[in-house]
What does this fold into?
Amino acid sequence: MSIVGIAASYLLGSLSFSILMARWLKQIDIRQHGSGNAGATNTLRVLGKGPALAVFLLDVAKGVLAVLIGRWLGGGEEWAPVVCGLAAIIGHNWPVFFHFKGGKGIATTIGALAVLAIGPAAVAGAVAIAVIAISRYVSLGSLVFVVLVPAALAVFGYDAAYLWGSAVIAVLAFYRHRRNIVKLIQGTENRLGGNKKGEQHGA
It folds into this structure.
């Protein structure tokens, strides 16, 4: 049943709402516009605030539902909801329904971690929001979030499954943001609300 839950979570994560929203509203492939990323930030750039908010909330919901699936089918095992949340993030990043070209998984990560560990996620999220508000770099705030979550989990005394799961999530986030990291170092990363062309984080 845990394997069924993991597979279901991956398929759930593979529902790329930014791609679906762009097809519905403008009959375009959002991966060919803006930053080319299938996420909420690029949806904001290409489609506007309303669609971006909808995409963000739906992507968060994927993470929430995946963890709940893990708790339902995991037989009480601590690792089951963690792996199901991770599977949804992987599905978002590499969706089977859209040729394995998806987003960067931050919104889905937020949803998964909010259910797995609301306290640590809230602390890390507050710091990340402050970083974004000050710097206007969504990518930087996203990376700060995924780095702080494992540290907060350790402080709050969570099970090792949660620590290892959050560490894997952080590695995935850094991998998906590798181009953004280069641009941050070079000072060429797009700021939230900026007009420069280039790749920016899309959750």
Summary: Residues 2-186 form one domain. Confidence is low (pLDDT under 50) at residues 196-203. DSSP finds ten helices and no strands in the chain. The chain has one domain: 2-186.
